[in-house]
Amino acid sequence: MSSKIYVGNLPYSVTDASLKSNFAEFGGVSSARVMMDRDTGQSKGFGFVEMTSADAAQAAIKALHGMSVDGRAIVVSLARPREERSAPGAYSPTGYRASNRPDVGYGNGGFGGGRY
């Protein structure tokens, strides 16, 4: 079982250190990171905590899910793997596509000509 935990609905005042100290009382914490906006440097309101054991992760989830932090009920759950995604107009193993929309392009009734 995974020991990586997603923590959502965090107040903007929460830092990596405070997140780590809150989870440390349930067991060893390998890492704690609050996600920051790269342009503004402000917290995005969520983060990830990696616990050293799955039992400690489950104990932290049960104890902290729904807990109020600065007036906000935080969401604590097991982290899901990141989903694979591709940008429109990008090259993928299946080939190049100008768009993921089937109604865009020549011969589809849009501004480029098409059906009558």
Low-confidence stretches: none
- In the CATH classification, which architecture of the domain at 4-78 applies? 2-Layer Sandwich
Most strands sheet = 4 strands, antiparallel
Please work out how many helical segments DSSP would assign.
Answer: 2
Structural class: alpha+beta
Mean pLDDT figure? 83
Radius of gyration: 21 Å
How far is the N terminus from the C terminus? 57 Å
Which range does the strand content fall in?
Answer: 25-35%
Order of helices and strands: EHEEHEEEEE
User: What percent of the residues sit in helical stretches (DSSP H or I)?
Assistant: 10-25%
Tally of extended strands? Answer: 8
Topology:
Layout (H helix, E strand, L loop, with lengths): L3 E5 L7 H9 L4 E8 L6 E9 L2 H11 L3 E2 L2 E2 L1 E4 L12 E2 L2 E2 L20
Describe this structure in words.
The protein is of the alpha+beta class. It has a domain at 4-78: RRM (RNA recognition motif) domain (Alpha-Beta Plaits), CATH 3.30.70.330. It has 2 helices and 8 strands. It has helices at 16-24, 54-64; strands spanning 4-8, 29-36, 43-51, 68-69, 72-73, 75-78, 91-92, 95-96. The strands form 3 sheets. The protein has a 4-stranded antiparallel beta sheet, with helices on one face. A two-stranded antiparallel ribbon has the order 4-5. The chain has a two-stranded antiparallel ribbon with strand order 7-8. Strand 4 and strand 5 form a beta hairpin.
Short description:
By secondary structure, the chain is of the alpha+beta class. 17% of the residues lie in helices and 29% in strands.
